[in-house]
């Protein structure tokens, strides 16, 4: 029992901390009413409801942004190793950029970049 005494005491302390945090949370929690409490907007009344939805026309633009954001995520490590790997890394990156270019052309043709 002696080797496990430290583990048992640590477990009891952890459970006591978790229980006390939960008890304090239950004692001091103020129930929020999201429909009655408007968000703080630097003293200005909000122009629309805080739980309003975005128009669906923004979703294609968001997906295009994410695609190019992920592109940069892949290009930074690629830039570090391109000199060591050589021509195959350059070909692979141009293939990747080609796929993204085809996606942009398709989105343009489908009207995802039209704002009207």
Description:
- This protein is mostly helical.
- The protein has a domain of 53 residues.
- Helix content is 66%, strand content 0%.
- The protein is built from 3 helices and no strands.
- Helix 2 runs antiparallel to helix 3.
- The radius of gyration is 27 Å and the shape is flat.
- The protein starts with a helix and ends in a 6-residue tail after the last helix.
- The mean pLDDT is 83.
Write out key terms for the chains shown.
flat; mainly alpha; 116 residues
Instruction: Profile the largest sheet.
Output: none
Based on CA inertia axes, which overall geometry fits? Answer: flat
Number of separate helices = 3
The residue-averaged pLDDT reads 83
The end-to-end span amounts to 74 Å
* Strand element count: 0
SSE order: HHH
- Rg, rounded, reads 27 Å
Proportion of residues in helical segments: 55-70%
Strand content: under 5%
Oligomer: single chain
Can you describe this structure in just a few lines?
The chain is an all-alpha fold.
How are the secondary structure elements laid out?
Layout: H1 5-28, H2 58-85, H3 87-110
Helix pairs in contact: 2-3
